[in-house]
Amino acid sequence: MGQHEILTRTPLFEGSSLDEITGMLGCLNARERHYSRDERIHRIGDVIGTVGLVLEGSVRIESVDVHGNVSVLGVRGPGSMFGEAYAAVPNEPLLVDVIAAEDCTVLFLNLAKVLTTCPRSCANHARTSRNMTAIIARQSLALSRRIIHVTPKSIREKVLAYLSDEAERTGSHEFDIPFDRQQLADYLGVDRSALSAELSRMARAGILETQRSHFILH
Fold first, then answer.
1. What is the C-alpha end-to-end distance of the chain, expressed in Å?
2. How many whole angstroms from its chain centre is CA 131?
3. CA nearest 74: which of 137, 129, 140?
4. For strand 104-110 and strand 174-176, is the pairing parallel, antiparallel, or unpaired?
5. Rounded to the nearest 5 degrees, what angle is found at the Cα of 182, between the Cα atoms of 176 and 183?
6. Is the pTM of this model over 0.90?
7. Over the chain, what HEC string results?
8. C-alpha angle 102-103-106 in degrees, rounded to nearest 5
């Protein structure tokens, strides 16, 4: 599948054909950028007016406290977006860094153009605007889920909160997560060594099986 063909399978352009999407890209001031692994895409404090749509590779959303401790808030892969909530609020500085988790290609779209119906009042643009509103709402729900995942006191409770949610989301007790061990530790706000030790204890207790990012939750 070509880079632009993936747009037909994204939530933003759901319901539009490739030809219809291609016709809208100019109206949305679309621009494509390539990034190398670990290259910074957005920096804490930046003010943005565009949303990023990942065409290839993946990006990582991180926050860093005053002591330099990193917390991974999420990973966005092909077809996923980032920056939509910040771009929707004028002059709102980013509270996170956005970094290329691997070599990636990102399509940037002017959010104001997405949310504002074009002069031609085309049905495709109006549909995309509705899709964007739904995406922003789902992102708010994702942040709420993370609060639920990190609220428990113990590492085991945090792990079970997160993995149970993933099992429900995928509809299966066997699934892959979008984090490696360090990223999972950062996401849950725990020490990596302590997380690995707890996962080993949970495996010995028959609670789960895991190999790298693959989990079976019993």
1. 36
2. 16
3. 140
4. unpaired
5. 60
6. no
7. CCCCHHHHHCCCCCCCCHHHHHHHHCCCCCEEEEECCCCEEECCCCCCCEEEEEEECCEEEEEECCCCCEEEEEEECCCCEECHHHHCCCCCCCCCEEEECCCEEEEEEEHHHHHCCCCCCCHHHHHHHHHHHHHHHHHHHHHHHHHHHHCCCCHHHHHHHHHHHHHHHHCCCEEECCCCHHHHHHHHCCCHHHHHHHHHHHHHCCCEEEECCEEEEC
8. 105
Relative to beta strand 50-56, strand 81-82 is antiparallel
Identify whether the C-beta of residue 150 lies closer than 8 Å to the C-beta of residue 71.
no
The token pair at 202 is 């949970």
Q: pLDDT tens for residues 143-186?
A: 788 888 989 999 999 999 999 999 998 999 999 998 899 889 98
Tokens standing for residue 105: 């290609």
Measured distance CA(43)–CA(10) in Å, rounded: 25
How many whole angstroms separate alpha carbon 143 and alpha carbon 145?
Answer: 5
